[in-house]
Amino acid sequence: MQYYTYAYLREDGTPYYVGKGKGRRVYKKGRVEIKPPKDKSKVIFLKQNLTEQEAFKHEIYMIAVFGRKNLGTGILRNRTNGGDGPSGSIRSEETKRKMSESKKDMSEETKRKMSEAKKGKPLSEETKRKMSEAKSKPNFYKSFYKRQMQFLFILIAHKLIKI
User: What is the pLDDT of residue 16?
Assistant: First the structure.
């Protein structure tokens, strides 16, 4: 099988998501909220013609290089460190139909409960204060880091450096 790693780019050229796929996976929305960009020029292939294991390793490496927003380590919206996912998962038509039906029959109360569960626990006053303080301070290192990542990604995209 021919696997690849890919990235979705922001308007400024920095990546916001790195993934592994084969076939047309790069252009399809996955199970998470990360959507492919509508502008196909904002989708780039990082490496191609890989085995699945090579693709997993490269995905892990690229996520480590650019870091994850949710961990405060970088700029990617990935929710995991990579190297996981239901590779090759194929659902029967019956399973797809059942999944679709189960979502259609949800009561408003169930939808509300699911929404509340996703919102997480309430933030303490101290946490809110710290978040407010952090947002109000200009962060030189954050903007410097972002510029470094943009430069690095441009070099990678134009194959001026090897990854």
Answer: 92
